[in-house]
Amino acid sequence: MNQLFSNFITTLRRYKVVSALNIVGLGVALAAFIAIMMQVHYDLSYDRFHKNEDRIFRVEVGTSTYLSRPMTRALAKNSPQIERSGLLVSWSKLKLSTDNQNFLEQRLMYYTPSILHYYTHRHTAKLSCRRR
């Protein structure tokens, strides 16, 4: 074992540039592996804290996840395997106004009350406003 360690140190000293490149490459590969595994863990555990998380599905049409209310109702009515349906809409930028104040909300979500039956996180505030 001592001989193996001695040969390793000798090789590192003799081929400094190659050894440095190998060590840096190994470090970058390990960092990339950790980052990828963190993303995979996040994707697999996303929304797993809800009750009945195995029965919650998201419907996408083409490349868009937006469905209109009539389409949502028709899907729920004509598909016996759908127990409940809800609508969740997000806007990236929305101008809001209340009384005499106008402001631009960066991320806003609108949902139908039926969403609360299967999403079990707490909501702390309710804001009513009109879209402009």
State the main characteristics.
two-stranded antiparallel sheet, 2 domains, alpha+beta, 132 residues
Largest sheet: 2 strands, antiparallel
Total domains, how many? 2
The structural class is: alpha+beta
Our count of helices gives: 3
The spatial strand order of the largest sheet comes to 1-4
% residues in beta strands? 5-15%
CA-based gyration radius:
27 Å
Helix content: 40-55%
Low-pLDDT residue spans:
none
Query: Which term fits the overall shape?
Result: elongated
Number of DSSP strands?
Answer: 4
Mean pLDDT rating: 79
Q: How far apart are the first and last residues' alpha carbons, in Å?
A: 74 Å
Elements, N to C (H/E):
HHHEEEE
Q: What this model shows, in words?
A:
It is built from 3 helices and 4 strands, in the order αααββββ. By secondary structure, the chain is of the alpha+beta class. Helix 1 crosses helix 2. The mean pLDDT is 79.
Tell me the layout of helices and strands:
Layout: H1 2-14, H2 16-45, H3 69-78, E1 88-91, E2 94-98, E3 101-105, E4 108-111
Antiparallel strand pairs: 1-4, 2-3
Helix pairs in contact: 1-2
Q: In a nutshell, what does this entry contain?
A:
40% of the residues lie in helices and 14% in strands.
